[in-house]
Design goal:
Layout lengths: L2 H15 L4 E10 L11 E2 L1 E14 L4 E6 L4 E6 L11 H14 L7 E7 L9 H17 L5 H16 L6 H8 L4 E6 L4 E6 L5 E11 L3 H19 L9 H7 L5 H25 L3 H18 L5 H12 L3 E6 L5 E9 L3 H16 L4 E5 L6 E3 L1
Parallel strand pairs: 4-6
Antiparallel strand pairs: 1-3, 1-13, 2-7, 3-6, 4-5, 7-8, 9-11, 9-12, 10-11
The protein binds adenosine-5'-diphosphate and magnesium ion (MG).
Length: 382
């Protein structure tokens, strides 16, 4: 727990709004495996992490709400009669979005003040946005006794992101951030929106994220293309989503597809299977096998689904070449962001140093290394 950040948020709230407030911790998330399976109604394997958003929230004495982004040193005021997204409103729209979506459910939100700040590395794809939305939904629910379930809250968070930020995200980020548990990951069925919790013992290994610090501007077009391919193949197979297809099914329509599209659909079907095999390896306590699945997943994203890039491939090659790394893969939508690595504890420093130097020598830019632990989801702190 980042006590320094908690103190700073607390002090800022007290100074501006007084002594009556609640403190909420809401984490970011990683995804261990299961990439681009969510919109195919398949399986993903996220976990909440020990980095997130810390929020102080309290009732307002006036009709006006105030929100303070501590890290940005920005503040804005709004009233609750006309809650609308602000063009280029950035962080403001996550807060307005949660309030607006609560109001749409017929819930009356009284005036409040909020101060928030975070320690999620920027641009690493660790879902600071879901952490922020959940912290507001959870904070308001606690503060005003709204009586919402966690599931209702994450749907509010997701809709806030859809309707006020304009990102058509699935449910994984909000789900993992809200429901996470210490030392556990969540096998999430994106069809039923239910999760099975898996305690994970990484034994002599630890999770290391390496941010490539690149984001190639392909993401949106390529994302839409992959979704279309998946929908098209599901249609050909006469199933609702690729989640319902097997490799044998795909062979039946192979002649009607380009090789490229066939490989993309095959990746999704295989990745979905891989998530289940990953779950089995956790039950077997086989950390090396978890690493092997990460490498296989990366192969699939690099060669079949084609959403990787030179920088990410390089980082995964580095992992493969190092004897103390069980495995690695790119994480997230693709074309940049982080790799997730399973690295022996006694080699963390050594590997971080090696990979950082080699990356710099090859691409002329720095990568950044972060260590993460599987942690508790959105909760009150005191
Ligand atoms: P991700 O969710 O993967 O971290 P997004 O682009 O979805 O990336 O969300 C990042 C946005 O969330 C930021 O641009 C900002 O508007 C908001 N945000 C996240 N953390 C903070 C923070 N600590 N202070 C202010 N805004 C934040
Ligand atoms: Mg986000």
């Amino acid at each position: 727990m980042n006590t320094e950040l908690i103190t700073a948020i607390q002090d800022t709230f007290k100074e501006k709004f007084g002594d009556n407030y609640l403190m909420v911790s809401s984490p970011g998330r990683i995804n261990l495996i299961g990439e681009h399976t969510d919109y195919n109604e398949g399986f993903v394997f996220p976990a909440a992490i020990d980095k997130g958003i810390i929020t102080a929230i309290g009732k307002s004495d006036s009709e006006t709400c105030s929100a303070v982004a501590y890290d940005l040193k920005e503040q804005f005021e709004f009233t609750l009669d006309e809650v609308e997204a602000i063009p280029k409103g950035n962080w403001r729209n996550y807060i307005l979005g949660v309030v607006g979506e609560l109001q749409k459910k017929g819930i009356e939100v009284p005036p409040f003040n909020v101060v928030f700040g975070g320690d999620v590395p920027n641009g690493a794809g660790l879902s600071s946005s879901a952490a922020l939305e959940n912290s507001i939904a959870f904070g308001l629910n606690e503060l005003f006794g709204l009586g919402l379930t966690k599931h209702e809250m994450i749907l509010v968070s997701q809709k806030a992101e859809h309707n006020y930020v304009g990102v058509r995200c699935g449910i994984m980020d909000q789900f993992a951030s809200m429901f996470g548990e210490e030392n556990q990951a969540l096998l999430l069925d994106c069809r039923t929106q239910t999760a099975t919790f898996y305690p994970i013992d990484f034994k002599d290994y630890e999770l290391m994220l390496i941010n490539s610090n690149v984001s190639h501007n392909l993401v949106e077009n390529e994302y839409n293309d992959r979704r279309q391919v998946c929908e098209h193949v599901a249609q050909l197979l006469d199933v609702p989503f690729l989640r319902d297809a097997t490799e044998e099914d795909l062979l039946k329509v192979k002649s009607q597809l380009s090789e490229a599209d066939y490989q993309k659909a095959l990746y999704v079907v295989q990745e979905n299977d891989r998530v289940m095999k990953f779950a089995k390896a956790i039950e077997d306590n086989d950390v090396e096998q978890l690493g092997t699945f990460l490498l296989e997943a990366h192969q699939g994203m690099q060669h079949q689904f084609k959403i990787s890039c030179d920088e990410l491939d390089f980082l995964v090659e580095q992992a493969k070449a190092h004897p103390s790394v069980a495995g690695a893969r790119m994480m997230g939508g693709g074309f940049g962001g982080c790799t997730i690595n399973i690295v022996k504890k006694d080699a963390l420093e050594d590997y971080a140093k090696t990979v950082t130097e080699n990356y710099k020598n090859t691409f002329g830019i720095d990568c950044s290394v972060h260590f993460v632990k599987l942690s508790q989801g959105t909760h009150l702190i005191n």
